[in-house]
Amino acid sequence: METPTTDASKATSWWQTLPGIITAVTATLTALTGLIVAVNQTGWFGPRTPPAVTTSSAPPPSAPPGPIASAPSAQAPPRSTSPLPSPGSTAAVGLPALRDYRLGDVTFTVRQAEVAPRTSEKDTLQVRLRLSNHQRTDANFWDSSFRLIVDGVPVAPVGGLNEVVPGQAAKDGDVLFVIPHGTTGATLTITHANDSTEIPLQLNAPH
């Protein structure tokens, strides 16, 4: 004898079978999606996507260095054809054994002498002397008392010596002459009041 089926039992049976249906449909969709992805990778639906190309971050090679253009240098001035004397070079002068010369009431003492280059063609002769004044009045100690005889020609001093030596006193001074380069001998003349003397000098060219 069949049991009559009611609406309540039908509803219960439907809710019991619904989770199974959902599970089956979900599994079917998952399998179908995996199949589509696999077929798409084989290129069935279109060209395969090329793999991404990894670019290097290294900088491009630089061009080989070329010749470096140097800045134009200033043109050097032409050199003088005449050799200039080196600064500071001097040569000692040979002096006679007698150094003291008494003229009237004063005595001139030759202390030292040297030759130094002045130009490429001229030298400077410097003679240091001491005037000792034995009188009570003043005595002039100046260029006017001196001359240098070079090759028979008297040469006047150029240093501008002009001193006054008091009585019973002494003072040193320099007498300067300009002479031709290469002069080897000269004579220094000293004149005071009515007296005079000559002093031979042995000159050497400066180094």
Instruction: Describe the main β-sheet briefly.
Output: 5 strands, antiparallel
First-residue to last-residue Cα separation: 157 Å
| Number of helical stretches of at least 4 residues | 1
Cα-atom Rg, whole angstroms? 60 Å
Give the second-level CATH assignment, the architecture of the domain at 91-202: Sandwich
| Unreliable stretches | 76-85
Shape: rod-shaped
Q: How many beta-strand elements? A: 11
Described by its quaternary structure, the protein is single chain
The CATH topology of the domain at 91-202 is given as: Immunoglobulin-like
Question: How helix-rich are the residues, as a percent range?
Answer: 10-25%
What's the order of the H and E elements?
HEEEEEEEEEEE
- Give the class-level CATH name of the domain at 91-202: Mainly Beta
Structural class: alpha+beta
Average pLDDT, all residues: 79
Sheet-strand content, in percent, reads 35-45%
Describe the protein in words:
There is one protein chain. This protein is α+β, with helices and mostly antiparallel strands. It has a domain at 91-202: Sandwich (Immunoglobulin-like). It contains 1 helix and 11 strands; from the N terminus they run H-E-E-E-E-E-E-E-E-E-E-E. The strands form 3 sheets. Strands 1, 2, 3, 4 and 9 form a 5-stranded antiparallel beta sheet that branches. It is rod-shaped. The protein starts with 6 loop residues before the first helix and ends in a 5-residue tail after the last strand.
